[in-house]
Specification:
single chain; 171 residues; alpha+beta; two-stranded antiparallel sheet; two-stranded parallel sheet; 5 helices; 4 strands
Length: 171
């Protein structure tokens, strides 16, 4: 998946690896915008060393990545509109079920961490930002049907969690 994404982003992921800028440590994140193309960009978060990733680390890392993404979108929007926001920017993130492979997390735990990360990023944006970007959609991508079905069954339970209640809708 990463090699395909690198190709679609004109080799920018590989270039960041060569320059030593590619996210690796826990809490690191980078965003590669790709306007007017498909995909329109990518958010890469550092997962640390093998065995180091926890639910808390995943939440913090995804929140940081989402904030970098929102900031880059705001900068892009300001440039396109001479420093003004004609309307609030509604951002979408599509994500894999991070940590569920070799990371050993359950599908539901990974989804919960990612949802909490987006909710945390949106709260930070609302409280501290002068830009008007909000992440309004989080899409989970899964190749294998059984895992996709498990994710679809987990989502309604997760968004009813009192800590997430009202933050998301199930579509």
């Amino acid at each position: 998946a990463e090699a395909v994404l690198d190709r679609l982003l004109d080799g920018r992921l590989r270039e960041y690896v060569r320059l030593g800028l590619y996210p690796g440590p826990l809490g690191s994140a980078e965003v590669f915008l790709n306007p007017e193309k498909k995909p329109q960009g990518a958010m890469v978060i550092g997962l640390g060393r093998v065995g180091e990733l926890t639910l808390g680390h995943l939440t913090i890392g995804f929140a940081r990545g989402a904030l970098v993404y929102a900031t880059r979108l705001a900068e892009q929007e300001k440039r396109a509109h001479q420093g003004r926001f004609p309307q609030p920017v509604q951002a979408k993130i599509s994500t894999l079920l991070i940590g569920t492979g070799a990371g050993g997390m359950t599908i539901e735990d990974s989804m919960a961490a990612l949802l909490h990360g987006v909710a945390q990023a949106n709260r930070t944006l609302a409280e501290h930002s002068t830009n008007t970007v909000a992440i309004t959609e989080l899409e989970f991508i899964e190749l294998f049907e059984d895992r996709a079905i498990a994710a679809a069954h987990a989502l309604p339970r997760l968004i009813q969690n009192p800590l997430l209640h009202g933050e998301f809708e199930d579509k």
